[in-house]
Amino acid sequence: MNKIPIYSFVAYSGTGKTTLLEKLIIELKSRGFRVAVIKHDAHKLEIDREGKDSWRFTNAGADVTILASIDKTAIMENRFVPLDTLLNKITDVDIILTEGFKFGEWPKIAVCREAAGNQLPIPVENCFAIVTDIPQQTDKPCFDLDDVSSLADFIIKDMKQKYR
What we know:
By secondary structure, the chain is α/β, with parallel strands linked by helices. Helix content is about 25%, strand content about 25%. The chain has 4 helices and 8 strands; from the N terminus they run βαβαββαββββα. It has a 6-stranded parallel β-sheet with strand order 2-5-1-6-7-8, with helices on one face. A two-stranded antiparallel sheet has the order 3-4. Strand 3 (about 65-70) and strand 4 form a beta hairpin.
């Protein structure tokens, strides 16, 4: 089992999950945290270009293709890998943030934005917290879309309570 805290950000497409996570990563990094992110892609994932060596290896049937350079490494599993398996491969970070995974045992932070015209993507009782610009009638912690600092404070407090 993974002992690294995991928090999943869930919302409908176009709500601003990626923008929120980008700001949260910057905030957590500024506080000295090492951060990993896993993004769910509902479309066919393409990270390599036709004709490149790694594409040729994958196209030839490799089950795993790894690109490694002096400053970056990418592991392409050319098959389905369960999320739990991916999470257990992550080491040497303080927190894992996921984007778009509505299922799993870790806390879900729901995001909704009035301009996107969407409501909460999961039932309120399944929310660990809510980030929104829409007033909510709930006892769940709510944060404004622009108050990333308070959201980071809340997550860090939870991490300290559960993982120390």
